[in-house]
Amino acid sequence: MKPTVACLEDLLKTKIRFLSDCVGPDIEKACIGSTGGEIIMLENVRFHLAEEGKGIINGEKVKASKDEIKAFR
């Protein structure tokens, strides 16, 4: 998502704050502390194994545990 920030800033004529993740305490803190009218772009969830429950990491098939999936959701 990060490569799209500059293009969106040009189109919207406003600054966009990019956060390099989409979940977790740092992201929650940043969103709660945002000001009115601020645009925040979050990184895509597809980088989290727990989002779909399975994936490929370093060429190997892996699965997230039920606890990891529940925590992510």
What does this 3D model show about the protein?
This protein has 73 residues and is of the alpha+beta class. It has two domains: 1-42, no CATH class; 48-73, no CATH class. The protein has four helices and four strands. The strands form two sheets. The chain has a two-stranded parallel ribbon with strand order 1-2. The mean pLDDT is 87.
Helix content: 25-40%
Structural class by helix and strand composition: alpha+beta
Radius of gyration: 15 Å
Report on the biggest sheet.
2 strands, parallel
Mean pLDDT: 87
The tally of structural domains comes to 2
Q: How far apart are the first and last residues' alpha carbons, in Å?
A: 21 Å
Overall spatial form: flat
Topology order in helix (H) and strand (E) letters: HEHEHEEH
Spatial strand arrangement across the major sheet: 1-2
Query: Percent of residues in beta strands?
Result: 15-25%
**Beta strands, count:** 4
Number of helices: 4
| Unreliable stretches covering 5 or more consecutive residues | none
